[in-house]
From TrEMBL:
EC number(s) from the headed UniProt entry: 1.11.1.-
Taxon lineage: Bacteria, Bacillati, Actinomycetota, Actinomycetes, Kitasatosporales
Spans annotated as Disordered: 1-26
Cofactor comment text: Binds 1 heme b (iron(II)-protoporphyrin IX) group non-covalently per subunit.
PANTHER family: DEFERROCHELATASE (PTHR30521:SF4), DEFERROCHELATASE/PEROXIDASE (PTHR30521)
Localisation: Cell envelope
Record's protein name: Deferrochelatase
Residue span, Dyp-type peroxidase C-terminal domain: 231-412
Catalytic activity: heme b + 2 H(+) = protoporphyrin IX + Fe(2+)
Broad class of enzyme this protein falls into: oxidoreductase
Homology family: Belongs to the DyP-type peroxidase family.
Dyp-type peroxidase N-terminal domain mapped to chain residues: 76-220
Cofactor(s) this protein requires: heme b
Species name: Streptomyces fuscus
Classification via InterPro entries: Dimeric_a/b-barrel, Dyp_perox_C, Dyp_perox_N, Dyp_peroxidase, EfeB/EfeN, TAT_signal
Length: 426
């Protein structure tokens, strides 16, 4: 989990000015509806009353549902957007006998469905109506191709060199059945039903052309859950994503996206996604003292500031010593090792989801991070940083990489086009 590369989760700022006395003629039901719209938190009694009353159809409770991301564009959706409250990752293998023709038809179906759902419309014929009452809720659907896809479709000559399999790492305990795949789909939304609706539509659209290889579910903090925009926390309780690359940086596009003149041509404006299921050994982690946890990360747990001082965004002083002459930021601290300036400038844009898939028989939580990172070149991005982490990151003791995938994600589709059309019809 490279500290420098998790995106900031930006949520709407709640109105914390407090409720005003109800004007004459305003019913308690209407007042409760207004409170929901401004992000105020009801007490237990108020919440019970609000639940029992019929919904106020004239006053929306929130604007989250109306937020819409465009399907068509230079880049595919689901890369540059902020963290979403709910996510599904799913990989497919083409069915026996299915090839380039079937893959093209599938990508056309999937692209049309994604366009519809992201606009808040039904998926088409056979829509399940799961999200009938909700708006788009910032839904994004992103598509990618795995290494094996190109042999299955007779397109080996179009397979990018950057898609070569990732090397082995010492922290890997990979389940091959939950790794890789011919096709990969990332679904994110700020409403769980909207996200599930998209997942179900994508699965149904696959028909006989492809079958599910693996599927994983994740979550993040909901928009409006904090009083002001904050960087996200992971399941270890750490603020996670402080040094994520930002679009305003002059070399952002170079690091994250394949240039329009890049090779292969069909990957222009695309990116490469590394997907890792990283289990957090929470019982071991939570057994550490606060001071020990902060030493592992190199940052304060309360506010994400570097141990060398300042605020979350302050530059880390890697040379600062304490009264005993010891480095304030330990030599093996995760934040130190994963810094771009400690890795030849390597950087990744991360949009992860946390996951919790139940409790094992011994009481251990099966929980952690669905790591998703984006870069123009995985060898210079993820591989460079992970190799450095593999050689001495203090955090490695408390995590385990259990599944892995690398996918070529082409640029966005233009009006009337489908994702991957330049590859499949070129």
């Amino acid at each position: 989990m490279a500290e420098q590369s998790i995106p900031e989760a930006r949520t709407p700022v709640a109105d914390d000015s407090g409720p005003s006395p109800a004007p004459a003629g305003v019913t308690r039901r209407a007042l409760l509806g207004t409170a929901g719209a401004t992000g105020l938190v009801l007490g237990a009694a108020g919440a019970a009353v609000g639940y029992a009353a019929a919904p106020d159809r004239e006053t929306p409770l929130s604007s989250v549902g109306s937020d819409e991301v465009m399907f068509h564009g230079k880049h595919q959706p689901g890369i540059l957007q902020g963290l979403q409250a709910r996510g599904h990752l799913i990989a497919f293998d083409l069915a026996p006998g299915a090839g380039r023709k079937e893959a093209a038809a599938l990508m056309r179906r999937w692209s049309d469905t994604a366009r519809r759902l992201m606009a808040g419309e039904p998926a088409g014929s056979g829509d399940t109506a799961v999200a009938r009452d909700a708006g788009p809720s910032s839904l994004t659907v992103t598509f990618g191709f795995g290494h094996s896809f190109f042999a299955r479709t007779g397109l080996e000559k179009q397979r990018p060199v950057a898609l070569d399999p990732l090397p082995d790492f010492s922290s890997d305990h990979l389940d091959k059945s939950r790794s890789d795949g011919d096709l990969w789909v990332q679904i994110g939304a700020n409403d769980a039903l909207v996200a599930f609706h998209a997942l179900r539509a994508i699965q149904k659209d696959a028909g006989k052309a492809a079958k599910v290889r693996w599927q994983m579910n994740g979550f993040n903090r909901s928009p409006g859950a904090t009083a002001h925009p904050m960087t996200a926390r992971n399941l270890m309780g750490q603020i996670d994503g402080t040094r994520n690359p930002k679009p305003a940086e002059p070399d952002f596009d170079k690091r994250i996206f394949v240039p329009a003149s890049g090779e292969p041509a069909w990957m222009a404006n695309g990116s490469y996604a590394v997907v890792r299921r990283i289990r957090m050994l929470l019982d071991d982690w939570e057994g550490l003292s606060l001071k020990e946890q902060e030493a592992v990360i190199g940052r304060r747990k309360s506010d994400g500031a570097p141990l060398s001082g300042g605020t979350e965004t302050s530059e880390m002083d890697l040379e600062k010593l304490d009264a005993n002459g010891e480095l304030v930021v330990p030599i093996n601290a995760h934040a130190r090792i994963s810094r771009p300036d400690q890795n030849g400038g390597a950087a990744m844009l991360r949009r992860p989801f946390s996951f919790h898939d139940g409790i094992d028989a011994d009481g251990t939580p099966d929980a952690g991070l669905l790591f998703v990172c984006w870069q123009s070149d995985p060898l210079r991005g993820f591989v460079t940083v992970q190799r450095k982490l593999d050689r001495g990151d203090a955090l490695s003791t408390y995590i385990r990489h259990e599944a892995s995938g690398l996918f070529a994600v082409p640029g966005g589709a233009g009006e009337g086009e489908y994702v991957g059309q330049a590859l499949l019809e070129g």
